[in-house]
Amino acid sequence: MLNQIEERTPFQTNLRERQWKLLLGGELRDAEGSKVYERISPFTRDTITQVPNGSKADADTAAEAAYAARRMWRLTTVPERAAALLKAADIIEAHGEELAYLDSIDGGSALQNSRMDVRLTLAHARLFAGLALEMKGDTIPASTGLHMTVREPVGVVVRIVPFNHPLMFAGKVFAPILAGNPTILKPPETAPLSALRLGELLQDVFPPGVFQVVTGQGRTVADTLVRHPLVRRIGFIGSEQTGLAIQKAAAESGVKEVSLELGGKNAMVVFPDADLDKAAEGAINGMNFAWSGQSCGSNSRLLVHSSVHDQIVAKIADKLKAHRLGDPLDPGTDQGTVINEKQFNSVMGYIETARKEGRLLSQAAAVRTEKPLQKVFLSPRRC
Asked: pTM of the predicted model, to two decimals?
């Protein structure tokens, strides 16, 4: 079945036979010992390909290469850094369809969503480049002397990104890179393909060590990078539990700056005077059903005034009748799969808890699902 999917893609080579590499110090390399792990399609449950399974030594190599590049890159003029970023954006745009397909095949999200992430990646990169000359200091009239501040690069940066928007979040590395910081990207182990392809495409855009990509299963690569004495700043998007572990590891190994985006219990409030059709549409879009709810910006709570509660629930259910689950690469698909069976089971556990507590009212029965594997699809439910 994976071969049938690939017949509809822009790839020049069979994904199963692709030899994926880490980008370390400007070179595309195997992981230490040529170790790999399999990526399994969340839609077909077939093996997509094998990717490098990075080690502590690979993470150390990345940190050392980034540190070696830091002086050269900080002395590179800001307009030159911005020009490199714009070149990277042009390359991503030229390969946008390929990158979108990789995210959909790898992560199970509908192709229309992955294409949107490509557009957002481009918009962010070009925005960062356009803001390059705004990295200014200040002069402060504190006394008769001259008081001024200067913004300087912090040093080696690590970005650890999640599986729900693999390419878009990978593109956030361009902000610290533009600011003069060599940056190491640790992609999600469950959806690393677009980041690995990004490493191939941008190998010659930035000097060696300025942009690197290190994949790996488990916590070894990320933990090594977080604790590495040469790493000064860490950005992470993911779960609260992992965020706490990163914060603790960083504090145990030095004085580091850590940014954590751990999601939240986002609420949408509907008052009696609201346009209920627009509110229902906004609720559906905000709940990110198109991403199977796998987005940290999702409305996980809908707070509705009691006087319009039944109306808004009915309108949402009615609009969801046309919501189509299926093949992520089918242009007519509104929603693909969850990322893997582990995540599926986790969500089902919450649904079962709601059922036991008497809070699960109904499943949106009119939602259409496609064969081949419904067990990793989650249709909208009403609680």
From this structure: 0.89
